[in-house]
Amino acid sequence: MLRCLVGNNIKSWDSVLCAAEFAHNHAVNKSTKFSPFRIVYGLVPQGPLDLGVTPDFTRSHGLASDFVVDLTHIHTQVHDNLQLSVSKYKEAADRHRRDVQFQVIDLVWAVLT
Predict the structure, then answer these.
(1) Cα angle: 43, vertex 36, 75; to 5 degrees
(2) In whole angstroms, what is the distance from residue 27 CA to residue 34 CA?
(3) Which of 46, 62, 87, 103 has CB atoms 3.0–4.6 Å from 50's, for a disulfide?
(4) pLDDT tens-digit series, residues 69-101
(5) Which among 67, 1, 61 is positioned nearest to 38, based on CA atoms?
(6) Sign (positive/negative) of CA torsion 17, 81, 70, 52?
(7) Is-contact 70 78, C-beta < 8 A?
């Protein structure tokens, strides 16, 4: 991914590292349906537009226990989304497989390495 950001200027990779990290932290994963930053820290990372807005002091920040409950809820949702994604991948892979049932008298070719 970094190669496409720097192009032919390989030695300037450090100048785009912040942009790559920002993009990675905000990208929503297809399987988990959450960004990696939200899975780990429980909140959506602030971007440049969030920093330009005046803070909202009317919003209550909650307690640490509320944060843990919210993070546990996010992890539960991520687990459920991953299970759903795995079942979709399994269903797609199973379409290309055939069910073979062997009987006791069947001859089979065994390759032992």
Answers:
(1) 70
(2) 8
(3) 46
(4) 888 899 999 999 999 999 999 999 999 998 889
(5) 67
(6) positive
(7) no
Separation of alpha carbons 94 and 87, rounded Å:
10
Q: Which tokens go with 7?
A: 């192009």
Least Cα distance to 44 among 66, 64, 6, 70 occurs for: 70
Q: How far apart are CA 42 and CA 32, in angstroms?
A: 14
Burial (0-12, 13-18, 19+ Cβ within 10 Å), 38: buried
Give dist(CA 95, CA 78) in Å, integer.
26
The model's pLDDT over 11-64, given as tens digits with 9 standing for 90+, comes to 777 777 888 888 888 888 888 888 888 888 888 777 766 666 566 666 655 677
